[in-house]
Structure formats: structure tokens, C-alpha cells
Amino acid sequence: MFVARSIAADHKDLIHDVSFDFHGRRMATCSSDQSVKVWDKSESGDWHCTASWKTHSGSVWRVTWAHPEFGQVLASCSFDRTAAVWEEIVGESNDKLRGQSHWVKRTTLVDSRTSVTDVKFAPKHMGLMLATCSADGIVRIYEAPDVMNLSQWSLQHEISCKLSCSCISWNPSSSRAHSPMIAVGSDDSSPNAMAKVQIFEYNENTRKELTSSGGPTKFEIHIVAQFDNHNSQVWRVSWNITGTVLASSGDDGCVRLWKANYMDNWKCTGILKGNGSPVSGSAQQGNPSPSLGSNIPNLQSSLNGSSAGRKHS
Amino acid sequence: MEKMSRVTTALSSSALTGHTMHCHLDAPANAISVCRDAAQVVVAGRSIFKIYAIEEEQFVEKLNLRVGRKPSLNLSCADVVWHQMDENLLATAATNGVVVTWNLGRPSRNKQDQLFTEHKRTVNKVCFHPSEAHVLLSGSQDGFMKCFDLRKKDSVSTFSGQSESVRDVQFSIRDYFTFASTFENGNVQLWDIRRPDRCERMFTAHNGPVFCCDWHPEDRGWLATGGRDKMVKVWDMTTQRAKEVHCVQTIASVARVKWRPECRHHLATCSMMVDHNIYVWDVRRPFVPAAMFEEHRDVTTGIAWRHPHDPSFLLSGSKDSTLCQHLFRDASQPVERANPEGLCYGLFGDLAFAAKESLVAAESGRKPCAGDRRHPIFFKRKLDPAEPFAGLASSALSVFEMEPGSGSMSWFVDTAERYALAGRPLAELCDHNSKVARELGRNQVAQTWTMLRIIYCSPGLVPTANLNHSVGKGSSCGLPLMNSFNLKDMAQGLGSETRLDRSKGDTRSDTVLLDSSATLITNEDNEETEGSDVPADYLLGDVEGEEDELYLLDPDHAHTEEPEYVLPQEAFPLRHEIVDTPPGPENLQDKADSPHVSGSEADVASLAPMDSSFSLVSVSHALYDSRLPPDFFSALVCDMLRFYAEQGDVQMAVSVLIVLGERVRKDIDEQTQEHWYASYIDLLQRFCLWNVSNQVVKLSTSRAISCLNQASTTLHVNCSHCKRPMSSRGWVCDRCHRCASMCAVCHHVVKGLFVWCQGCSHGGHLQHIMKWLEGSSHCPAGCGHLCEYS
Lengths: 313, 790
Prior knowledge:
- The complex is a heterodimer of chains A (313) and B (790).
- Chain A has helices at 204-212, 296-303, 307-312; strands spanning 2-7, 15-20, 26-31, 35-41, 47-54, 60-65, 73-78, 83-89, 102-109, 116-121, 129-134, 138-143, 154-160, 165-170, 181-186, 197-202, 221-227, 234-239, 245-250, 254-260, 266-273, 278-279.
- With 313 residues, chain A is mostly beta strands.
- In chain A, the strands form five sheets. Chain A has a five-stranded antiparallel β-sheet, covered by helices on one side.
- The radius of gyration of chain A is 20 Å and the shape is globular.
- Among the domains of chain B are: 339-380 and 392-408, no CATH class; 410-455 and 630-711, no CATH class.
- In chain B, α6 packs antiparallel against α7 (443-456), α8 (462-477) runs antiparallel to α9 and α9 crosses α10 (509-518).
- Chain B is elongated and about 115 Å long.
């Protein structure tokens, strides 16, 4: 089904992240060698490195694309405790750099005092926003008030998660049915630490009130759910496209699926083993869910669940 | 030499033991130094100067060297060094420029031995000669280095670095007479101790101050330097010109660097600010620290390996007033926490995957990976067997591309481009879309379109009921664009359907089916088509795909003959089949219960015949004969749309929504519709299908969506008098202060529709300009411009 195309990445150390852009024709890689490379797909389908530059003074953990509406913009985060925003400059090309695009650092976000482990742009409809999380357990949300000016970012929120954060993910849904949410996973290795996965939600109402009264545009963030059932480090969190199901993968080789019921209580709706076999959900301590876990079809439908599905189920 | 050998034997007889531990000091430490017996450590700072014994479980304070009532600046230490041959001898560098030596063998409480007050500013560093008992070297902020013989009162020689300040001085271990000094301006100098007049060699090592240097403990002539530019560089000093052999990039300016004993390629660093951690690097892997010690809460100021032949104990002092012993095995290893794999799904189904090569190789083992060829070159250097090194880690990057036609997203693009959403009668749209879907091999979708046509375009009853309904709805909704579309659509639909009605009189229902499918290609120009003309028209339409439809319809006709009169009674029970069969039997098998399907419906679904063509026939007949109003089905169609949306095929949901328009819109709540539209438009834009996306935006009935393409459209206007861009709003030019919207024909200010030429900025009333252009193509203002209006 797949044709493998091996690419001589020529990174001098481990590659930690690969990221396709919005249109799927560009790819960015980041590596411990402190550089980020941008690859463009040619007409023939080959990937050509069109830019490679040193981004940080430490391992670059993640690289992510902004929506193209904001230009060709990348964000990277690193062991060196910073996150950076990069913009591609199209312009004069001297002979030496022919075919090489030029990326300029627009800003460095230096608020973290430990390694910044993940960086993600918010969904487009929220404007130009960026979330970072760091090893000391703080999620930071930045906003560029002027989308034309990528060098000005204001720190909007600092959310303390109390555990070392490893990954972050915005709820992709643009539906107005629910407020924006952000999920955070922790790589804290102690098995009895609580809240390995947490979901935070913006309170849009508070925001409106405050902005209209001319006060600070800080809006309330409250924790929607926290899941304590992961017994190991959580490496990745990921939403389904409609933002109704959250998947988190852990060091125990299991993927756990979380879904809100009609009361907005988030529950574990399924556990998938790395080998593909589902684990009975009712085996979870403190989570008696009679209808869940035992039937796979239910699980699948919840995986594909749309916002409509959320209301009806 | 004799003493050195004793040290070695001391270690071999009783290997060092201990734990990771720390003790609190009274004040921040500036520097530490270890006694050669590895059992004591001296800590010096601005207001602390103590010796601690390193015991198994803890540090024990042995001696406080700060004696006397009046604190003297001579005791404010910037650096301290313990002689490596004489365990009673220490030297400190004071911030006031004094170099003090201490003799622990003195019987009195005050152990101060000698005082050299030769430097004018802070002494940054003191260093004993590694094999000479009485030679001490100092480097100061005033730019001078001085060599002292402890048997004499004054310095033996003074070396001028010709630079602002000396940050570090270190005697070479390899050459008896050589020492290295580093400077604030980025230079490193090599001196012969016998030649104070000029340096042997000088080179620029760093960009900015070089804070520290350390000679490799094994006899190799390697010098490591660390600077404010966050780099540690390893220089080979044996060659004529100093050659940079390694470069380590750290995350903060490097304050101290110390080679790790017994490990040829390891060195420890700590930073001067920001970063409180101590890192141990393998210089061959310059990007990722091999180990990291995170105990300190403030800047680490001094690091020392406990014993020159033991690689596992590291001592450190910090501004946070603690003294720590770190065990190498307790260090955190950033490499272990680094994520070795990256994965991303592309838009076209491409899967990019980067993984550590060792992982990939372990799995496949046969394919030589792209990065492998680097390894032989690397391993040419002889490796120290005592120092296991996995090799420079690298990742293999590959993109797995979908083979064309197997699950890649080309179907989405093709479908989006080829679907007809408006501008033709409903039946034609359905047929066209069904054909498109079938050609792309999406039979289930094709079937759905056919079903929709059957439901909504059954002859006889559609025109009256549906047209009225649509008009009523459209006007209340108040969207003129949609409204007109619907009317036009319906008008055409009415035309074709009444014609069908006419033909129905003398032909059977199966020919009607054929006829309506034929209208797809034979459009408006043959309005007068009679029932008898149909076959001919059909043959004229040369599209190949049409034949499929013929075949598909043919078995239907075969069926139609027998059960014609039985079916009316079954019409109601069969309703449920319609719900579930359009989504398709193949899907029902694996996703038996979608959240919407109640138990009873699911039961019916499983009982429903799996032969879709059969069910199609029965349904179509049920329709014809029972004369059910199309409204009757709208709930089911809505369920079908939700089903598609949930399956991830939001394209289908939106397309049907647009094509059916008012027929189903009222049954789906606004928010869901808006969500579908938004998702579909987002997808279209991802695939760069701007035209389709714009069409969808235009056809959408949701207010939030249809205003999408009205946002951020800017109109640039020039003043018709001064030809300058008009910056302010309104029609008054702020340069020549005249109204720019004068009609060039009647010379009145235009209110309402204003049309103007983009070339010369002149224009006027639409009617006037149109009239003028009938006679002349030149500008009515007389500017001579050949105006063009699009």
C-alpha cells in the first residue's frame, strides 16, 4: 500500500520530530543537532531540503507549522529552554543560496526555566496563538495580538500542571459547540503520580466580559478533566479531528481514549494495546463503566465521533 | 613522582565509595578544590573558607580557615586550589588582588602562610605547578599573570597578556614549562614559564570572553576551553597551529570545564548564569549531554572530580550555598528522555517517519541505511575500550507514500473538483454526482446519490409540493443568492419534470427512469423531448460511464415487472431499509451500531437485504406507487448525512446539503451545518482547491460561512482628479479635497451604483457610462484613455 521513500536527512544527531505543513507539500524535521530542516516536495514527488539552519543551542524537540494564512511560519522548542518562531523570507537570492530559502527568527520565548518539550499553534480560528509546555510542568499560552507582527508575543497564561510535561495538543474543533481545549500529557515516571493527562478549557464567557469592560484580556482557564489512570509516562496526546475524543499514549505501550459524556464528564472509553488488542475498560480502577471497553464497535464509533455524535451519544 | 604513585596505589587498594549527597554551607561558594587524598574538599567564597571531610554518608566540617575577628578582604576568595602533591598547601585568590597561601601544617589557629599583594585587581585564578612543589601561578583582572616561588617573598616573573583581563591560567600537564591562559577578549595564549617577554602562541578561541580552560589529564596536548559564546572547544595543541578537534554547544555561557578522569572524551561543564545544572559531555556527541546533574538551585560555581583516577564522583559548589557530591550513576541522562522517533501524517496520506537508526537497523537488519556510511569514517579513530560509546546517533528519515489509488486522498480532490453542486436541475446534479462517484470507484456514495434522486425527483409529485416549499423557505431566510439559485433550479426541474409527467402517460415507469437519467446529457436545448425520443437521445450521449448506469438500471427493470402490485402495502415497513441501506451494507457489517441507530433500527438493518440493487428497486417502486411526499424522507436523509459526517466523509454531507438545499436544511441544526461547512472548507483549502472552496462558501446558507469570503477583501481606489490613491474612507480625496465620485457624463455626484475604469479612475453612473460606451470607447472625461470595463 505504501511506497517507502528514504531520505538522506543528513542530520548529525537524532531526529525528534517530523511535521507536514497544512497543504502536505512541505515537511520540517528537527534534530538534536540543534538544526531544523525544511523539505519541499518537487513535482516528481522527491523531497528536497530547501533550508537548514541552526535554531537553538540545544536539542530541538519539536517543530510545528502555523496555518499558512499567517505566512510560512514555524515554531520550534528546545532543550535550551526556549521556543522560537521562524518565518520564511522570500526575496533576493544570491548565487550562494540559490534554491535555499531563508528563515528568520521572529521571536524567542524565554519564559521557561527548563527544557521546553512541546510547542503547538492553536487552531486558526483562535488567531495566532501558541502553546508551549516545559519539563517543569508549566503550560504557557502566547498570543500575537497583531498577526502581521510575528515578533510580538504576549504571554497570556501560565498554567501549572505540577508534573513534568511531555506533550501538548489543541483541540482542533472549530465548532462553537464547545470552548477551545488543550490537552497536556506528562512524562513523570512515578506510577502513583496523579493527573498524567489533563485537559484545560478556555472560558469564553469570562473573556468576553473582561474584554468588553476594558480590563486585562486574561480569561479564565479551568481544568476540565484529569486522568490518573496512566501508570507510566505519557508521550503523546492527540485529538480526533472533531475534538471529541482524546488519545494518549504511554510508556506502558497502551493508548487510552478519553471521551466526554453528555454531562461533560470525561471518561476512559477504551484502552488499546500496542499489539492492537483492546484491554477491558472495566478493569480500570475507580472507573466503573459498564457499557464501555467490552464492545469494540462502540469504541470505533466514538473514535469517529463528530460533534453531532457527542450530543447524541 | 613518588607521591603520585602513592596516590594511584591508594585508589586501587580502597576504591572510593559514597553517595549522592549535599551539605548546606553558610554562604555561597565561589570555588572548590579537592585534596589529593580525595577525602577532603575546600570550599571558598566571599565569606566562607572551610575544609570539609568527605565521608561515606555526609560532609563533615573539618576546619574553618576564616579566623580572626575582623573580616579581611584578603579572605574574600575568588578561587582556591589545593596542591596536588603537598596536602598541607593551599592557595587562594582574593577579590582585592591578593594571593594567599595557606599551610595546614601550622600549629596555630591561623594557617595563613604567605601574602602576595602584587595584583591590582581581582585575581581570577590561581594554579599550582603539577609537579613542582613551590611554583604558583596567578591570573588577574588587571591583565597580568604572575609566577610565584613560595620560597621567595615576591613574584618570580610577570607575564603581560596585552589584554584586559585574564580569566584562567592552567599549567600544562604534558610540558613542564608551558601554561595556557585565557582572556576576556576571546584569545588563548600559550606561555613558556621561562620567557616572560612574550607568549609562545596565541589564537582566538571564542567569540567573547574565554572563561575557562582545562588540559586533558592524559598526555595528549588537548586543551578544552569554554566561553561566553556557550561553546566548549577542544584544541589539539601539539600541531603547529592550534587545531579545533571538537566543539560542544551548550545552552549557556561556560564558566568551568573539567575533563572527566579515565574517560578520554568526557568533560564536565557548568554555567555562569541562567543554567544551574552540571553537564557531562561526550565531545564526540556534541549536541546532547551524556549526563546531567540537577541538584543545584542556583548557579554552580565550582566543579571538581573527586579523584584524578575515578570517573564516578563529582563535587560541586554553588551560589545556593550547598556543596554536593554527585554520583555519575545517579545522573539523569537527557539522551534517555529524548524522543527517538518522529511521525507525521501528511495531507495526501504520506507518512513521514524518522527513527533512530539503531532501532530501524535492529528491526530490518538487511537494508543499509543512508546514515550508515558515516560510521566507518567515524570509527577509524581508535576507540577507548574502557569507554563504551554507541556511536554517533543518527536518524533515518523516510516518507511512505501512498501508491496512487490505494487510499491516497486523490478521490477527495477528484470528487471535489467534479461534483456539480448547483446550476442544474436536482435530478441532473444527483445523476452527475452519482456518475462521478461511480467512476472514482465509490459505489456506496454513487448509490446514495441515485437514491436521493429517486426520493426527491420522483415524477408527478415533486413540482408542486416542493417548489412551494422551497420558495416559502427561501424568502424567509432572506439570502437572495440562495434564493435565486433555488428558484432557477426548481424552474428547470419543473420543466423537465412536467415533461416527464407528460411522457409518463404513455410509457412505463422504467422508461421514466431512463429518461431522467438521459436528461443529464441532453439538457435544456431539447425541451420538447417526447417519450418516443428518449432512446435516440440516450444514444447521442456518448459518455462511457452512462452505460454503467444503463446496466445498473437494467436489472431493476427486470425486477419491476413482477412485484409491481404487491409493493404498495410494504411501503411503510420498507422505510427503515432506506435509512440504513444508503450508508451501505458493507459498512453496516463492521460498524453495526452507530450512536444514532437505536436497537430496533439496527435490527431492521441487519435483516435488510444485502443486495443493494434489489433494495434500490423495491424502494423506488415503493416511492412511485405510494406517492409519499419527499418531506417524509428528510429525517432519514438527515440521518444519512450525519452518518457520512461521522464516517469522516464531510464532503458527502456538505455536497448533499447544498444540492438538496431547503429540502433538508431545516432538519439539521444550524450549528452542525456550520460545523460541516467549516470542516469541508478547511479541507478544501488544505488541498488548495480554492475555487471549489469559494463555491461552497457561496452556496452555503449558513451566515457565518457565507461571510467568509467577504472578509479581508480590500478595495484600492484612486482619486479621479489627482490620480493618487485615496487613503481615507468616503469619496472625498484628502489631497485635492474634491469629490472623486463625479459622473464623467452628467457631472453630478453619483449616489448608488458607481462604475469606473481602473485605468484612468474616471467613471460615473452605470447607465451613463454604458450609454457612452455604446458610442465611444474613449473615456467620457476626455482624458484620452481607452477605458475598459469588465
